[in-house]
Design brief:
two-stranded antiparallel ribbon; single chain; 183 residues; two-stranded parallel ribbon; 4 strands
Length: 183
């Protein structure tokens, strides 16, 4: 089994694939030291950060490492370029927590990994159409699950994981077209 290490460079490439340019490069992609990312009055704090990590751990393949730093970097860049996204992410996390409290008597981040997987499944996330203005499960699918999966698979490391040598936005040069994918 091969390990795949996600980096801030991967986050920059994923942001580029999402059409986001980050001034200051990787240095601009860190979660603030005070634990809060604020945009237009909306705060993403440690709870939101930990919940994003927990969702990523459910939806990302187990062989992926460096998830927390990658998610922090990607979300910081995404929220920095789109102030409304912070409110959408916070709302989706609130909806996910409400569901988890109702069915599992705890917030999503407090559940063990098996219950997290079961909670997302029971909520109907796989069948939900992603919609930023839809019902709770559609918002969770849009702002949390799909956003995190897009970030992973549009990064060079995530692309390598599924055999896409050059994901969109990642030039690999003519050499990459002449060699077979890694097995």
């Amino acid at each position: 089994m091969t390990d795949y290490e996600l980096t801030r460079r991967d986050a920059l490439k994923a942001l580029g694939a999402a059409g986001v340019t980050v001034a200051g490069g990787a240095a601009a992609l860190s979660w603030p030291d005070d634990g809060e990312t604020k945009r237009d009055g909306q705060t993403l704090g440690d709870h939101e950060r930990e919940t994003l990590h927990a969702v990523a751990r459910v939806v990302y393949p187990s062989e992926v490492n460096g998830v927390e730093e990658f998610v922090d970097s990607y979300v910081s860049g995404r929220v920095g370029s789109d102030p409304d996204r912070a409110a959408g992410i916070a709302d989706a996390i609130e909806a996910l927590d409400a569901y988890a409290r109702e069915w599992e008597d705890g917030e999503f981040v407090a559940l063990d990994s098996t219950l997290r997987t079961e909670t997302l499944s029971a909520m109907g996330i796989r069948q939900a159409d992603p919609d930023p203005n839809g019902d709770p499960r559609q918002r969770v699918r849009y702002y949390l699950v799909n956003e995190l999966l897009f970030a992973l698979y549009s990064s060079p490391t995530g692309g390598r994981l599924v055999g896409i040598e050059n994901p969109q936005g990642h030039p690999g040069g003519t050499e990459s077209y002449r060699r077979p994918p890694d097995s």
